[in-house]
Design goal:
Number of helices of chain B: 8
Distance between the termini of chain B: 40 Å
Helix content of chain A: over 70%
Largest sheet of chain A: none
Shape of chain B: globular
Number of strands of chain B: 1
Number of helices of chain A: 6
Shape of chain A: elongated
Oligomer: heterodimer
Number of strands of chain A: 1
Distance between the termini of chain A: 56 Å
Radius of gyration of chain A: 41 Å
Order of helices and strands of chain B: HHHHEHHHH
Radius of gyration of chain B: 18 Å
Structural class of chain A: mainly alpha
């Protein structure tokens, strides 16, 4: 019998008959590579697991605490830099207006009131214009177009809600 | 519900003491895997600690239908494989002969000091030849022989196909045998057949 079947037996690690065992023993005496394979098989099976030095769990708890502390520090500095940048940007953008407001508060007050009244009157004008357009449009746009427009709007709304829900589920499951 | 599952659920709810119980139970298997993979006690300690940290951070992602041991060892195996690959680029030697060896669990079957010394020598030799394997092959061997993982479990843990695991195991054992032979060319197997699971 040649070398190959013995090597296959050793690699397969399946139970052998007593006759096969005897053949294998005889082969091992003459074949160094099969002998090495058999020795490795034995060594792999008998080698015991190694344990860490005592206090592993305590060292893990310290490491966890250190990692958390570092994470907290990173979060604090991250938020601090973000807030500081936002405040800095806001100040940079509003500083001329603030300076102006401190110089002449009454003028600022009048400007604000004028702007607000302008926005209010503009909104009223847009509302009136919109109602006139709708009244006129309802006379020459057929009813089925209106139905289609409302149906499409509803469909897009549903799609939007469904996609938001799916995205939320994916995030939870990740 | 098992005690372990109870600890897992409590850990998922943010109970650190429950996670500490899991660390206590799995510290030796996880450390042993890292030691067999990395070959150095310090690196193994660091890798085991890091693997537990990763498990802690990702405990919510653990699927309770799977085995916790498989999930945990898979984290450690992937971590060690990455570390070995990085190590290959940084060319750090792991062949220091004067390294300190970690605490081995006592062998109850050791009858006399000579047999114990021979066993230790053999284990050191195995440890040495194990280092010659590619990182993924080494992980497959460790999971197969120290944890009795099936080929399917190894495939799951290492993100491989079952056929890839089979071929890696065969190749790795051939490689180990070759190195073993090189290390100790005149060694003879002096065991009774019943000691070997191979025949």
């Amino acid at each position: 019998m040649n070398h190959r079947p013995f090597e296959d037996w050793l690699l397969a690690e399946e139970p052998l008959t007593s006759e096969q065992k005897a053949d294998l023993q005889a082969h091992l005496r003459t074949c160094p590579s099969c002998m090495a394979l058999a020795e490795v098989n034995v060594a792999l099976r008998v080698t015991k697991p190694v344990a860490p030095t005592p206090g592993f769990n305590t060292r893990f708890q310290s490491r966890l605490a250190a990692r958390r502390s570092a994470q907290r520090r990173r979060n604090f500095w991250g938020i601090f830099i973000l807030v500081a940048s936002a405040v800095g940007l806001l100040l940079w953008l509003t500083l001329p207006y603030l300076f102006w407001a401190f110089q002449s508060p009454m003028e600022v007050f009048i400007t604000w009131i004028t702007t607000l009244s302008f926005i209010f009157t503009s909104l009223l004008a847009y509302g009136k214009a919109g109602s006139v357009i709708l009244r006129v449009a309802s006379d020459f746009i057929p009813a089925y177009i209106w139905v289609a427009v409302f149906a499409l709007t509803g469909l897009f709304g549903l799609l939007w809600v469904a996609s938001i829900r799916k995205f939320a589920n994916l995030t939870e499951g990740a | 519900m098992t005690e372990e599952m109870d600890w897992i659920i409590q850990s998922q709810q943010g109970n650190d003491e429950a996670f500490a119980q899991l660390v206590a139970v799995y510290q030796t298997p996880l450390y042993n895997l890292c030691y067999r993979m990395l070959g150095e006690p310090e690196a193994a300690e660091d890798a085991a600690q890091e693997s537990f940290l990763r498990a802690y951070q990702n405990i919510l992602r653990y699927d309770r239908q799977r085995s916790f041991a498989t999930w945990l060892l898979s984290i450690a195996a992937h971590y060690c494989i990455d570390r070995l690959r990085r190590r290959r680029f940084t060319s750090i030697s792991i062949d220091d002969d004067d390294e300190e060896h970690p605490m081995e669990l006592p062998d109850q079957s050791a009858l006399n000091p000579e047999a114990e010394a021979a066993r230790r020598e053999e284990q050191e030799q195995l440890h040495k030849v194990l280092r010659s394997l590619d990182a993924t092959d080494r992980a497959a061997i460790v999971l197969r022989y120290w944890y009795d993982f099936s080929e399917v479990e190894i495939a799951e843990s290492l993100s491989l196909t079952v056929s890839a695991v089979k071929s890696r195991l065969h190749r790795a054992r051939r490689e180990l045998a070759k190195r073993w032979q090189e290390e100790q060319p005149r060694t003879h197997l002096e065991r009774s057949p019943h000691e070997s699971p191979a025949f």
